[in-house]
Amino acid sequence: MKKKIVSMLLCATMVSVMLAGCGGKNEETGGGSGADSESTAASDDKPFAGEKLTVLYMSGVYADAAKSIVDEFEAETGATVEVVDFPYTTLHEKALLDLTSGTGSYDIIDVASQWDGEFAPYMTDLGPLMEKDGYTTDVFIENVFANSGSWQGTTIGIPNASTPQLFAYRTDLLPDGLPDTWEEYRAMAKELTDKDSGMYGISVSATTGQLGGTFDYVLWSMGGAWADEDWNVTIDSPETRAALEHLKEIQDYADPSILSWGVEESTKAFLDGNAAVCEAWPTLGLVQAADDESQSKVAGKWALSLIPHDKTGATLLSAWDVSIPAASKNQELAWEWVKMYTSEENQNKFYDEFGILSPRKAFWEQDGIKGTYMDTVREALNTANMWWRVPASTEVDTMLNTVVSEYMSGQTDLETAVQKMKTGIEEALKNAPPEEGTKNYNL
C-alpha cells in the first residue's frame, strides 16, 4: 500500500494576472508610405483592424476560455473574433470536413491530440512563425508536448490543456492510500462494497463513449498494447484478457447503473459519499467541488492517487493543442491568437476560472499548486500516454468502446471480444495505414 497520502486541500484561489498583451504584432501591416504620424500610430496600435478571426473549440471550458479573451484580443489587434464550438462527439467530424475540403472556415482549431497525425497534412508548420518571434516550446512539459502539437519533427500546434487519468479516493476509508496492483485494488473494492447500504468500492465512467479509455489505461498499466512499434497487432494477449476480466469483475463493486454513467454521474456518486474510489477525470468537476460542503459529503477526506501499476506507470492522457489550418487566410492574426490563448498569464487565468490544467512547467511550481494534491497530477503527466495519433486511431477507439461495452453487458464472451478487437485494429490499419517511417510509440 502506498504510504504517502496526497494532500487533500484544493488549491487556494490564484491571483489573476492582468493580461499585458500578446506581443509580436505584425509590423508589416500598418500605415503605408506617406501616412502621417498620427495614422501610422493608429495602425501600429491596431495592426489587424478590419480582419475577422474564426476559432473552433470543443464546447465547454475550452470554448468558454476562448470567449473570455475575445474582448482583450479585439482591443489589442483591432480584429473581430467569432468563437464556434461543437461537443466532442461531433467536433472531429466538423473539423476534418473543413480541413479536407480546404474551405478555410476556421483560422484556429483546438485539436484533441489523438487527431494530430490525421490533421497534420492540413495544418500550418508553426516553425517559421515561432522563429520570427523567438517562441520556444521548452516551457512545456516534455511528455505533453511530445503527445500534443509535435508531429514527426514538426510543430503543428501549441499545447493548451493536459489532464492525466487519476483516481480519487476516500482517505477515511483508505488511510494508507490505494493499492499498487489491480489484484489488490479489486480486493479493496470488494471489501468496501455494501450494496444494502448503497456503498460501493468504485465509481467509474463506463458508458460506451468512455469505456475505451478505461480499458486502455488498465491494459497499458498491465503492460499490454494495441500493437508493437511496427504496427503489428498485439491485442490478442494475456494482458488484454486480464484487462477485460478486471473490468467485468469490478462491475460487482460498483453501482449497477455504471454502464450508463459518464464522468458527471461517476463524480457525483463519489461526492455523495457512495463510493470509496472514483475512476474519472478528476479535474472535470471533482476537485472543484470536493471540498465544497454544499456540493460534497467527502469534504476534507479525499485525495488523488496514481492508478495501480502492475507493470508500467502509464496512465491515459487527455491533451489539446491550438493549431492553424493551412487554408486559413489569416495566418499572422491566427498566430497572435495562439500566443495569447496559450500565454502563461492566460493559462493561469484559465485554471483559476475554468479548471483547465496548463501544460507549462512553471504553472506547477507556483505557490498554491506545488505541495498540494496537484503534485500527483504533475507526476502523472510525465508518463501519461495517448492513443495512437494516426488516422486509424479514431476508428480503433470507436471499435474498442463498442466491443468492451458488448463484453461488459454480456452480449459477447471473452474470446469473441478479443478476436473482434484484433480484427478491428487490423482493419483500421488497412483502411488508414500509418505514414511510412512512422513508429508506434504507444506501447
Produce a short descriptive summary.
With 443 residues, this protein is of the alpha/beta class.
Structural class: alpha/beta
Q: Pick out the low-confidence regions.
A: 1-42
Supply the CATH architecture of the largest domain: 3-Layer(aba) Sandwich
Shape: globular
Return Rg in Å.
23 Å
Number of helices: 17
Overall helicity: 25-40%
At the fourth level of CATH, the homologous superfamily of the largest domain is Periplasmic binding protein-like II
Main sheet properties: 5 strands, mixed
- The count of DSSP E runs of length 2 or more, i.e. the number of strands, is 11
CATH top level label of the largest domain? Alpha Beta
Tell me the layout of helices and strands.
Elements: H1 37-45, E1 52-58, H2 61-68, H3 70-77, E2 80-86, H4 88-101, E3 108-112, H5 116-119, H6 127-133, H7 142-147, E4 150-151, E5 154-155, E6 158-164, E7 166-170, H8 182-192, E8 200-204, H9 208-221, H10 238-250, H11 263-271, E9 275-280, H12 286-289, E10 302-305, E11 317-323, H13 331-341, H14 344-354, H15 374-381, H16 392-408, H17 414-431
Parallel strand pairs: 1-2, 1-3, 8-9
Antiparallel strand pairs: 3-11, 4-5, 6-11, 7-9, 7-10
Helix pairs in contact: 9-16, 16-17
